Each structure stands twice: as C-alpha cells, then as structure tokens.
Amino acid sequence: MNRKTLISILVVLLVVAGAFYYFKIYKLKTPQTGDAVEMVSKLIMLPEGEKPTVATISDPALLQGQPFFANAQKGDELLIYSVAQKAYLYRPSINKLIEVSVINTNASPQGQ
Q: Which domain holds residue 12?
C-alpha cells in the first residue's frame, strides 16, 4: 500500500467516525416524539391517569386561522388529553410550551 492510499483510508475513517458521533450527539440533544410527554411534564403538571394523543405539526399553514396554532412551527408537538380536556403545544427545539388550552371534545356539530 502506498502512502496516498493509506492517508485516503485514514481520512475516510475519520470522516465516518466524526459523522457517527455528530449524529449520535445530535440525537441525544433533540427530543424524540415519544419523549414529548416526558419533556412537557418537566415544564408543567400534566393530567394524571391518562395517556395523551401526540401529533407532530408537519404543515403549520394548514392550521392558519386557528388561534391555538397561531405560533405553531413545523416540528412542534401537540399533546391532547381528551378526558382532562386540555391541549399543549410544545416546541422540542427550544424545550418550551408555546400554547396551553382547555378543549371541548364533547361539542356537537352546529345545527344539531
């Protein structure tokens, strides 16, 4: 093996190792969807005895005109506790609650 080949292999290995550790650290810093309940529970008391419905905001433009979602961004997590009738909008990227609201899940459609 000549010197150029050895250096090329070494550079490739360093780049691969660097990328591996970068993504490993990035993954540790970025809460995953399954962690949303745990992260929000550190910021505010959540209803007990109920597992929320969790959704990720993928297109905030579809939510325009709804005051609860006025500050929503792509990647925000929505936690809905239907029994407790509460909703939480959480932004994992900054670890902050963006909005909290009481919801009415028993509302009947208008005109009925």
A: 1-30
26 and 9 part of one domain: yes
Give 55's DSSP letter.
E
Within-domain flag for 110: no
Mean pLDDT along residues 27-41: 69
Q: Are 15 and 61 in the same domain?
A: no
Q: What is the pTM of this model?
A: 0.66
**Residue bearing the bigger pLDDT, 52 or 16:** 52
Within this chain, do residues 37 and 22 fall inside the same structural domain, yes or no?
Answer: no
- Return d(Cα 18, Cα 24) in angstroms, integer: 10
Q: Measured over all CA atoms, what is the biggest interatomic distance in the chain, rounded to whole angstroms? A: 82
Q: pLDDT tens across 52-92, in order?
A: 999 999 999 999 899 999 999 999 999 999 999 999 999 99
10 Å CB burial of residue 91 (0-12, 13-18, 19+) is: middle
In terms of Cβ atoms closer than 10 Å to its own Cβ (0-12, 13-18, 19+), residue 78 is buried
